[in-house]
Amino acid sequence: MDDKASRLFVAGLLRHHLEIEELMLLTATFLAALEPVEAGEVAQIYDETIAGRRAGPPIAPFFSHMDEATFWAMHADVIELRAYAVAIIKFMKPDARANFLAFVKAEYDQ
Questions:
Q1: Which domain range does residue 87 map to?
Q2: What contacts 23, CB < 8 A, 6 or more positions away?
């Protein structure tokens, strides 16, 4: 099964019939069965599969920065969210970082 459509079909069947914990166990089992040289091929298939689900970089705001950021975050995957969040916080000046983290804490501790 080397075509993308077949992989997505089987993935849909598995997702429909199995719980996430079962899918993760199957994935770990399949990965453990591979030879190290096969890992690169699996990584390429993973990248190709996930690439279609990623939001890509944020674009310039159409209405407001917050609206655009919210729209982007709704479509981003966990890897993108973490990468942008860490990069943004990392490059803030210390006082701005402290203020921002206090704002986030106050916003979500409600």
A1: 65-108
A2: 14, 15
Indicate if 43 and 75 belong to the same structural domain. no
For residues 67 and 61, is the Cβ–Cβ distance under 8 A? yes
Q: Are 84 and 58 in contact (CB under 8 A)?
A: yes
Q: Is this prediction's pTM over 0.85?
A: no
The answer to the question of residue 57 being in a domain is: no
Quote the pLDDT of residue 53. 66
**Same domain, yes or no, for 77 and 45?**
no
72 with 99, same domain: the answer is yes
pLDDT per position as a tens digit, 34-64 = 887 787 788 777 777 766 666 777 777 778 8
Q: Are 61 and 68 in contact (CB under 8 A)?
A: yes
Question: Which amino acid is located at 106 in the chain?
Answer: A
